[in-house]
Write a structure and sequence with these properties.
The structure is a single chain. With 340 residues, this protein is an alpha/beta fold. It has a domain at 207-333: 3-Layer(aba) Sandwich (Rossmann fold). The protein has helices at residues 2-25, 38-47, 71-79, 95-99, 160-177, 182-207, 223-229, 247-260, 276-283, 303-339; strands at 33-35, 55-56, 82-85, 104-107, 118-120, 126-127, 214-215, 232-233, 264-267, 286-289. The strands form four sheets. The chain has a four-stranded parallel beta sheet, with helices on one face. A two-stranded antiparallel sheet has the order 5-6. Strands 7-8 form a two-stranded parallel sheet. α9 links the parallel β9 (264-267) and β10 (286-289). The longest helix is centred in the last third of the chain and has 37 residues, at 303-339.
């Protein structure tokens, strides 16, 4: 017994020494990289593997829509060699400190080749080239090809195609500011892109059954998932962004629930509208958690993959509840008809 304890202690010492050695041998001249949100941290972490680690600004359940920088955050930004963020539509708090900084920053919203979707109008129509104006069969040219980024849905990472392009952009910028480690960045970028391409195929297969599925979420953050997988957020037809619904909007939502037999609500823990519970009780609906940022997922290289998998899984749970209820209603209707 004593001998086995000594062996375990010896192995633990060896393991700890390897951990310390790993930290010591890490490049002391690695660039100081500051990243705004967890999905971008996951990409940057992997691209920098073997060189250094980025610093994440928004820790825990911090919300980019309502975040305020502390003096320590400002210091991190000032001392950084590279800042990686989505853009002012999501992290408006970063505009001022970045404007006063001469060093490089990447606003990934401006990455070439991204699939960008404009925010929905009051008729629930995504403002992009396929958008059709209300009460007409013609495209509404007044909302096409808008160059103003304030109209764009900033949750661009929820499209894996965009994630791939952002990873490549991160790799190029890191290689440009740290030439001696450029090969490492290129190799890491290549590996991560390859993994994302395979992941997209898997995710697409899993989401096939979700086509034309109706759900409710009062945080209109899922336009990229809706567009790619032909989903429909009925609440987005009545509520803008993550605003709380008005009495008129609430009445319309209730009508849509009845008309489309919607059976579940996706709740964003950062943006609860306050009426999810009320609707769930009235219509006997189920509540499922959905978080586009993955605030409860540990920051690290696997964060993005876990995030996307969990979102699709929650949509499928929501759909299963809908199908189960629809089947029950049909069965009840047939039974009623046969008895009469």
């Amino acid at each position: 017994m004593l001998k086995s304890r000594k062996i375990m202690t010896y192995l633990l010492v060896i393991f700890m020494s390897f951990q310390v050695q790993a930290k010591v041998t890490q490049n002391p001249d690695a660039p100081k990289v500051v990243v705004s949100i967890k999905p971008l941290y996951a990409f940057t972490y992997e691209v920098m593997r073997g060189v250094g680690e980025p610093t994440l600004l928004l820790q825990g359940a911090a919300d980019p829509h309502h975040f305020n920088l502390t003096p320590s955050h400002v210091k991190l930004i000032k001392e950084s060699d590279l800042i990686i963020w989505i853009g002012p539509m999501l992290e408006h708090f970063m505009v001022k400190p970045i404007a006063g900084k001469k060093k490089r920053d990447i606003s990934l919203m401006s990455t070439k080749g991204l699939n960008l979707l404009h925010r929905k109008n009051s008729h629930g129509c995504i403002l992009e080239k396929a958008c059709v104006g209300p009460n007409t069969r013609k495209k509404d040219d007044s909302i096409l090809y808008l160059k103003d980024y304030t109209t764009i849905d900033p949750h661009i990472w929820l499209d894996v195609h965009n994630a791939i392009l952002m990873v490549q952009e991160i790799g190029l910028n890191l290689a440009a500011i740290d030439l001696k480690n450029s090969k490492i960045y290129r190799d890491n970028t290549h590996r991560l892109v390859k993994r994302l391409i395979a992941f997209k195929k898997t995710l697409d297969r899993k989401a096939e059954s979700l086509r034309h599925f109706h759900f409710i979420s009062f945080h209109d953050a899922y336009a990229y998932l809706e567009y790619n997988y032909k989903l429909k957020n009925s609440a987005a037809e009545t509520v803008k962004g993550h605003d709380k619904p008005s009495l008129k909007a609430y009445s319309k939502i209730r009508d849509l629930i009845r008309k489309r037999d919607i059976r579940c609500i996706l709740v964003d823990p950062q943006h609860p509208s306050g009426i999810e519970q009320k609707l769930a009780k009235e219509f006997k609906m189920s509540l499922y958690r959905a978080d586009p940022l993955g605030i409860n997922i540990q920051a690290g290289p696997n964060h993005y993959f876990i995030l996307m998998e969990s979102l699709i899984q929650n949509f499928k749970k929501c759909q299963h509840k809908h199908k189960k209820h629809s089947h029950s209603r049909k069965k009840h209707r047939k039974k009623k008809q046969s008895s009469s």
